[in-house]
Amino acid sequence: MSDQTPQGTTVPDAAFQPQIFKGLAGVPVDYTAISKVNPETNSLLYRGYPVQELAASVTFEEVAYLLWHGELPDDAQLAEFEELERRHRGLDHEVKRIVDELPLTAHPMDVVRTAVSVIGASDPATPDDSRESNLEKSIRLFAKLPSIVSYDQRRRHELEFVEPRLDLGYSANFLWQTFGEAPELEVVNAFDTSMILYAEHSFNASTFTARVIASTLSDLYSAVTGAIGALKGPLHGGANEAVMHAFDEIGTGEGSAARATAWLDAALAEKRKIMGFGHRVYKNGDSRVPTMRDALERMVEHYHRPDLLELYVALEEGMAERKGIKPNLDYPAGPVYHLMGFDTETFTPLFVASRVTGWTAHVMEQLASNALIRPLSVYNGPDERHVPPKGNASGEPAA
Ligand SMILES: CC(=O)SCCNC(=O)CCNC(=O)[C@H](O)C(C)(C)COP(=O)(O)OP(=O)(O)OC[C@H]1O[C@@H](n2cnc3c(N)ncnc32)[C@H](O)[C@@H]1OP(=O)(O)O
Ligand SMILES: O=C([O-])CC(=O)C(=O)O
């Protein structure tokens, strides 16, 4: 395949028919040993383990370790890893200062993206792309993201930063730092489940972005910063925030289910995409949704909000009837985060805090067997042409 159409044509001619895979849909780009998304069996494996089993039996810290090292930690390895993660939870004054300078109109994803960039710019080891150095950077980002996300949510409410608690696990501490109260176990468990389910999903758009950046032999922080930019969009991670905006448009509370159906009809008539539904790879439902939906049901009960579940079910059934399209992970995750008390704009930064594990595992995998990622394009612009001669001072063409 050529990078251009044959010379002199603007439309590819009949004899030259390169196949274009718009959006790289269905195109295998490389191998990965990190996760397997299987739409036929509706399953998702992290390093061979079904994600549902992981969510039921291990913590997010163990999943992070698994993604980076390929194996679950034994007790001694876990203790050492947890100690390392807890040690890096604090936030440097410089990061807080720069975050403070960002206007409150900045989206929290822009804040997280900037904070990661600042951490990268301040790390003297940024150019060192050895696996050992990249693993250290990954653990530090993993440990610091809860501080960044909670700091930003709290500053928007004019609340002080809450220092991390080193006696708490990752998820309990994340909730503690955000809300300044010791969280209840049931809430911690639901949050931990969301972190595990969001951690990794093969060559999705943000992970692929990270791999493209890594493939140029740029640095890990740049790869994560770029991945955050890709995740922000509502066709990808931004959908968990967008789900809640839809719920707000419909209006939660009594009668929400009836309103949801009318809202859906109007939205589909306007050809709007319904956020939290559909998936590039899963065409028969997202493997992670049942587990996240269980967590939603537990949170609905915990916070006494049956109206939210009614709205959830009404939209889900409406989409199934009208379009035959099923929810993706962002659909149950949005209302779960809402019930826990996170600001709607903070939902996608929570996804970042989880997915940083997958992104960085992919950066290390890319570097271990690197090839510059540079696909081809097929030119369909104007035929070759030439810059017209410029006029002289009198406006006449130059001799
Ligand atoms: C964690 C994640 O990132 S999961 C994805 C989160 N994103 C969302 O929830 C955003 C809403 N969903 C979507 O926009 C899409 O389903 C995507 C982007 C996720 C997947 O898109 P693709 O695989 O490219 O499918 P595509 O957009 O071509 O959709 C195929 C058809 O289904 C329709 N469709 C797909 N999703 C939706 C939706 N959410 N609402 C309405 N119609 C939809 C499309 O309009 C299209 O219809 P058409 O053939 O009549 O034009
Ligand atoms: O795989 C995708 O395209 C999007 C997704 O579900 C994810 O990144 O978790």
From TrEMBL:
<dbReference type="GO" id="GO:0050440">
    <property type="term" value="F:2-methylcitrate synthase activity"/>
</dbReference>
<keyword id="KW-0816">Tricarboxylic acid cycle</keyword>
<dbReference type="InterPro" id="IPR024176">
    <property type="entry name" value="Citrate_synthase_bac-typ"/>
</dbReference>
<feature type="region of interest" description="Disordered">
    <location>
        <begin position="379"/>
        <end position="399"/>
    </location>
</feature>
<dbReference type="Pfam" id="PF00285">
    <property type="entry name" value="Citrate_synt"/>
</dbReference>
<dbReference type="InterPro" id="IPR036969">
    <property type="entry name" value="Citrate_synthase_sf"/>
</dbReference>
<keyword id="KW-0012">Acyltransferase</keyword>
<dbReference type="InterPro" id="IPR016143">
    <property type="entry name" value="Citrate_synth-like_sm_a-sub"/>
</dbReference>
<comment type="similarity">
    <text>Belongs to the citrate synthase family.</text>
</comment>
<dbReference type="InterPro" id="IPR011278">
    <property type="entry name" value="2-MeCitrate/Citrate_synth_II"/>
</dbReference>
<comment type="pathway">
    <text>Carbohydrate metabolism; tricarboxylic acid cycle.</text>
</comment>
<dbReference type="InterPro" id="IPR002020">
    <property type="entry name" value="Citrate_synthase"/>
</dbReference>
<dbReference type="GO" id="GO:0036440">
    <property type="term" value="F:citrate synthase activity"/>
</dbReference>
<protein>
    <recommendedName>
        <fullName>Citrate synthase</fullName>
    </recommendedName>
</protein>
<keyword id="KW-0808">Transferase</keyword>
<dbReference type="InterPro" id="IPR019810">
    <property type="entry name" value="Citrate_synthase_AS"/>
</dbReference>
<dbReference type="InterPro" id="IPR016142">
    <property type="entry name" value="Citrate_synth-like_lrg_a-sub"/>
</dbReference>
